Write the structure tokens for this entry.
Amino acid sequence: MILKKFEFNDVFAANCYLYVDDISSHGFIIDPSAHAQELFEFIKKEGWIIEKILLTHSHLDHIGAVLNLADTLKIKYYGLYTAKEYLLNPNLAMHFTDRSVIQNIQPLQEGDIIFLNANQNVSLQVIATPGHTIDSVAYYDKTNNILFTGDTIFQSGIGRTDIPGSGGNYRELFSNIKNKILTLPDNTILYPGHGSSTTVKQEKISFEF
């Protein structure tokens, strides 16, 4: 597998990942926050075919380029089923001027497996991790020991639960980190929505779980 990280700081300080099968050159894009044209041009230059856009949650700094990319690449975008509630509920989506920004999101459930059409041996498992937002989710590649965590957990840190309109819940967040993420193998690499990668082993030490 090929993993390419884009860290955009001028528009939204957030990580975007391209996760591509080195056999078929098909893959996923995770949390396209901004710079849709730059991402498209890079994908085209590499000769990759992106099959799906995957969202870890619906905060604006993680979805800013979704519509442009989806339209350009002619693909669908996916997120936890509660993303629809988040985006369309005015009490939750207070920071959106256009509440239909990703109205046609494809809903995912806990335990769903997302396959690459071009190579069914490549897949990501959906792990629901609400707490930072009501629709937070992580994507787990068991074969390669990789987890894309969004803003649930960072290197020596966890997501905020006090952002207005996000439906944050500290107890829920803590429970999901402890029971769903830090129970994965110690060598699992965590790729967060902000900052550097870390591992399950390191975060167990950091948080003394």
Observations:
- Residues 2-207 form a domain with the Metallo-beta-lactamase; Chain A fold (CATH 3.60.15.10).
- The chain has one domain: 2-207.
- The chain has a mean pLDDT of 91.
